[in-house]
Amino acid sequence: MSKKLLRVLRGERVDPPPIWLMRQAGRYLPEYRELREQAGDFLSLATIPDLATEVTLQPVRRFMLDAAILFSDILLVPWGPGQRLEYVSGTGPVLSPIRSAADLLRLSPARLSSAIGSVAQTVRRVRGALGNASSDVALIGFAGAPWTVACYMIEGRGSRDFVAPRMMAYRNAALLDGLIGLLTETTISYLTAQADAGAEAIMLFDSWAGLLPPSQFRRYILAPNCSICAAVRQRFPGLPLIGFPRLAGTMLGEYGVATGVDAAGIDTSVSPEVAASLLPSGVAVQGNLDPLAVLVGGEELEAQTRYILTALDNRPHIFNVGHGILPNTPPKHVEELVRIVRQGPSRPFGRDPAGQTAT
Amino acid sequence: MSKKLLRVLRGERVDPPPIWLMRQAGRYLPEYRELREQAGDFLSLATIPDLATEVTLQPVRRFMLDAAILFSDILLVPWGPGQRLEYVSGTGPVLSPIRSAADLLRLSPARLSSAIGSVAQTVRRVRGALGNASSDVALIGFAGAPWTVACYMIEGRGSRDFVAPRMMAYRNAALLDGLIGLLTETTISYLTAQADAGAEAIMLFDSWAGLLPPSQFRRYILAPNCSICAAVRQRFPGLPLIGFPRLAGTMLGEYGVATGVDAAGIDTSVSPEVAASLLPSGVAVQGNLDPLAVLVGGEELEAQTRYILTALDNRPHIFNVGHGILPNTPPKHVEELVRIVRQGPSRPFGRDPAGQTAT
Q: What ipTM did this prediction achieve?
């Protein structure tokens, strides 16, 4: 009996679908806030294996989700090789921006190995803990895809439109190619280490894929995602891969074909029916509830959840949000969501399968 | 002999396609900056018919474009009925936010008529000027679509993610429905006045359509866009309508079917081929060059332009950018763009049709 999430990733329809949630470990959980305070800063929380293991397990224990996702941050990959990184309250991550070849050359990819070591340690511990506690929970490892990580590295912080990296694609494509190439290599090492340590599936987050016109999407999204998927697959045949080209919209189908991912994450704006029709038929769809619906709860949470369940009923489907859980989300709403998903699309909420009102 | 833009809007393929550019009148033109300085503030420039007429005509004269678009602002529709509006340098528009029924009731839609009057006056003057100077130039009127205008009215300013209006869709849908209803009505009056004054096509800008999950997209994008298109069409049968559901992605096909627009604008992230396949076959496609490519110029401008021309070669197509022209764009690059588009997809740039290098 294999784990539900892994069965869906092999192309099987599972009813009800497995559920996990992007940013399921995080500030909305009181037990997370407590550990975060103990750790002092975010980077310690993400890199001390004992703490990262505990944070990874918290939501799985509380909500009985079908997957744990490694607690980490996509910016460990630039931070490991030496890019200055600070988490500023109210602003988010702030980095010393990469704007020239000299900036790029100051990074030493070899130094990534210590960050990799701590993350691999976390993966091993989580896997050990899951093995004992709940054998149906799969462990997902992850990394940011090269373009998305490059966006932060070049801009130096979060942004509405990331003009600096988009401009670099036009004015200094050679430098951007170099950075994307470096990130492709380091991401392969990083993910290989996670798979070696016991990750059972890998997810690549390309949160800023939607910023690029088609030709640049092919060069900076498709090509590096392809290389990473191919390299990971060569070393770990059969290890399932989930891609998340956020806001890719009409490029979703081409992304699915080109990368050969086993599942594609879709963001909140996407029509699940159209996504299913654009993607090759064997590819599972992961998503795509509006995180605001979880924050607010009640009728809209129920209606949107059922809509997604119904729309993807005939498809290998992993239920998820379309973007990360928001910090002010009441944990009770996540409980409610899990309950609705486990009831499946056809059974009205609050009624038992025979159609009688429960209470 | 009808105007090229109008022929495409009736479903005809025209080679080379007509071209105009979103924000073709604006800060990147020295003649605009001069008038802007004379006017003092932006709202005067947009509402004094002499000035708005001149600004509307500037890019058409300079670049011989196939269409003039009324120089105005989508926020005249809330400003007219009394919402406080200021343009703050470096920040953009700042409004007193609408957060309650009381805020909404303070607006008096009847007061919109004076703003409507000045805009209609501008349309009449532009139409008169175009009639004499260049009979192939079509005049496009426009408005913001209700959801997009509501985003600014509720948030009170531009934003990365417009949390306030998105939250209102969950927590106070009745108030949002009321505001969208009011905007639908005033937008119909506003566009009717523009058509009466001589606008030859109408464009509805839904710049923030991409923020909503499918169910809310249907309620706040499809429904009001439909109502507006139907009402305008009833009063002006045959007046072509262009919709621009920016970042709608996979919802584009449903938008085209539901609204019955004659053309759909597509943003920079969209695959022109997929857009063409999602939209009903009679609907023209308008777009979608990256404005950064125009700012930067050179090889990428040429390559991306030719790619779009080729991808939409078999489709009624209006060449445009996928988002507004950027303030630092050199006017010379717009000239270059117009030249490339007029050469068509198959003729290599810098060579004459016989294949010899021109100089």
A: 0.92
